[in-house]
Amino acid sequence: MSLVLFVVCAVVLGALWQIHRTWDRPPPDVGAFARSAATRSAGADAAREGAARLGELRAALPWAVPVGTSVADSCRTLEQGAMFGPRNWSPIRCTRNTVLYLAFDGDIRTRLRQLDAVLAEKKWAGTDAGRNTLTAMATWLSEAGGDASPSAVQRGSTEPPGSRPICLSTGYVPAAQAAAPTGAEVGLQAAVAERPCPPEADTGDLQLDGPPRKSAVEGTYYVAWHPLWTRAVSRSAYADHRYLVAFSLVDTYAAQPGTGDRATVRP
Fold first, then answer.
1. Angstrom distance (rounded) from CA 94 to CA 223
2. How far does Cα 237 stand from its chain's mean position?
3. pTM as predicted
4. If you average pLDDT over every residue of the chain, what do you get?
5. Torsion angles phi and psi, residue 189, rounded to 5
6. pLDDT (tens digit, 9 = 90+) per residue, 58-78?
7. Neighbours of 94 (CB within 10 A)
8. Spatial distance between the Cα atoms of 41 and 265, rounded to a whole number of angstroms
9. How far apart are CA 221 and CA 224, in angstroms?
10. With bands split at pLDDT 50, 70 and 90, how would you rate the model's confidence at 210?
11. Partners of 71 in the beta sheet?
12. Which of 90, 47, 79 is nearest to 253 (CA)?
């Protein structure tokens, strides 16, 4: 009986393994999509346009000191399979994350207004209704009791009091994109932080309790990776300056088509 039971179990396990192999669909070839001529051309355009956009912001803020720029450019697909049944994968998307860090000092009320003016001049439109500027975000936080320091923007003191440092951010898109959205999208996050709080930055890699790491998730292919650890940048900048602004530029420049769709790349 034991031999028969063993054979039955072996047959069942073999059948289950074959079913698993049938259902366990591997991810699409992300590397091939990333290396295609159309994607590489779109990626080169994204790198060039991103450098120009951040360069404009840097040049318009002469009182801010550049302390580093990080880049993480990757194409990826995400598993969408259910607990039971075959794995499915989302369409591949290629995104370039570039973060420009600038340190500064001075009256924070004035600096926030200057940052808002430069972003408006460079045609960046806020995405948070009612709080679509850094000054408005600081005021909202003070009214909501979320952060003691930004209330200084409203009260008018030169040195913001309070036990909690300024740590705020808000999102933007190009004004033309806000008026007419397209498949290839660009977003900017502007985050201002006060010593010792590190600014919120969308770096495109893993930054948990240590230096940045590439994502180990299956279906991820890195095109470019020049990481900076936001905490390390902050510690270095705060040795000589009180505030830090991080401009995180996120550009989704290519996307694999879904069912019945065409691939979206930089026009």
1. 9
2. 21
3. 0.80
4. 81
5. -115, 125
6. 999 999 999 999 999 999 998
7. 27
8. 9
9. 9
10. confident
11. 98, 226
12. 47
